[in-house]
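Reviewers of the previous submission asked for a worked example of the structure-prediction workflow described in the proposal, so we include one complete record here. The input consisted solely of the amino acid sequence. No template or homolog information was supplied to the procedure at any stage.
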Amino acid sequence: MRIAKLLMFVFTAMMLIVIFPWQTQAAVSDADADLMSMQQGAGALSPDFSPSVTEYRLKMRSSEQGFYTAASPANSKATMAYSMNGSAWITLANNTSTGYIPTNRGENTFQIKVTSADSSTIKTYKVHVYFPATSDADLSDLRVSGAALIPPFQSTTTNYTASVPYATNSLSLTGLLNDPAATFLINGTAASDGAAFGPIPLNVGSNTITVQTTSYDKTANKTYTITVVRAAPGTNAQLSALTIFGSTLSLPFQPHLMGYVLADVPYSTSSLAVAPVLSDVNASVYVRANGGSYIQAVSGSPTALLPLKVGSNKLEIKVVAEDPSEEKIYTLSVTRLKNSDASLSGLSVSPGHLDFSSQVTDYSMTVSRSVPSLTVKPVLPDGNPVAKIQVRVNGGSYVSVQSGMDSPALPLISGVPNVIEVLVTAQDGTTRLYTIRVTQAGTPMLTKMVMDGMKVRLTFSEPLRSVADATYFSVTNMSRNAALSVTDVVYTPGAAEVGFTASGLFQPGDDLKLRIQAGAVSSFSGETNAAVSLRVVYGDAMQQMLRRLADLDTDGDGIDIREVLAYLNSPYGHNDLNGDGQFTHEDVAIVLRQIGAKFVSP
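From that input alone, the workflow returned the following structure tokens.
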């Protein structure tokens, strides 16, 4: 007997050494009466231990010989004593097991009293210990995932019901034993105390789940029964509302009406979105366009864009009830109109130049008699790839031309006006006709003059065979009443351009007069030019403005509003400074930005 008791003592001591390892004590106040830890081998504390919490619950296994614990104070100099069920206080050493303490079956109260090192503070921790009987086969709790037991669980009640929707095809069950040493089965399969068991499959209708418990000593059994009713699937396959984005229904939406016609949409509408709302949230909804694949939608939210082709379109909204054998299809008919755009975004000729504008349909141009034919290059807007383009000259047959491609050569008839027609036909049949009237001329005529600094470049209507010397060209600065010298006349035989250098005193804003004498240039047909006289203002609009701004400060005290108004009201003030073809507040803003810090208040 003594050997048996010795072995039991050694076993208990070894167990506590393993379970309750020595813990290093931190430096704390001598008035501290907190526990740093309290270890349990007979069950788990609830809640988890915290030095500031002084009351706990603990459920033992019925198979234990009794309750035991060990504790460590925050200050290792503090002293501890324990008591079970109001017994006398027994001194407890730091981190040392109490050993098995006599414990009653049922409810017990265990206390640890901590006295601080300076005896100024006493703190008591209390544990309510439940020690079940070995014949206890009760559950203390039973929970069903996603459902509520009716009536609420009590260990003495053994029959329950629960209801779940059709969408719930399985559930899990969690049982908590009153005696952790007891055992239980769920539907005949062993389950673990406090752990979820499942999934348990559910049929539509009534399902019976049994929980069979057996006490630790095998003398008691108990059966808890739960009847779970899984609802039948819903059969509602209707919508309660339907919104169309980008068009409207011909009739107000009604859940029982399956077919609708939408208002026609313009060609620019290439897709539509719909927002169907389910009558039964457990149903599913899908959409598709023109027999394509169905796409699942979210009730009440706009769907992905459904593509529309030109002409008739059929949009379908399929509702599948929770019972998949029940479905309804709503049909939306919508017509996407054909494109009516018959405009061009570009039109050019070769050889030659057109100042094209999409709003202008009639053009005139002059070419040399040496030009036997022209080609045109029409360009459609990016958003209109389906219009057709046809070209003809002088009333001949139309030929098709691809957007952005040169037409076949269009022959010109010498001595008569030539008419080139570009016919654009939109997808819906709308047409627009662009006309280019081409005149051939043998006499070289000045068509363009460009000044780049001191360099002047003249462009004539004909290829040139010869050019006279510099005396046939003159430039006079009318602003300063001074003649400029003309030198370095250059040209290439066969080209239509002549260049020369003008030297002398002139600045941006000066009024220049260019004169070309008759006979200055000769074409290959032997004809010479008529006399030409041109007036130009030197420099571009910005250069002219900057030059004139330098003269704004007429009184030498900074530029004020009176001088700005004087500039804007003068003839040279109306300049197109931003190149948009008109004088607006934007040009005035450019003036104001240029004067900057020079501006002073009046």
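The mean pLDDT is 87. We consider this example representative of the routine output the project will generate in years two and three.
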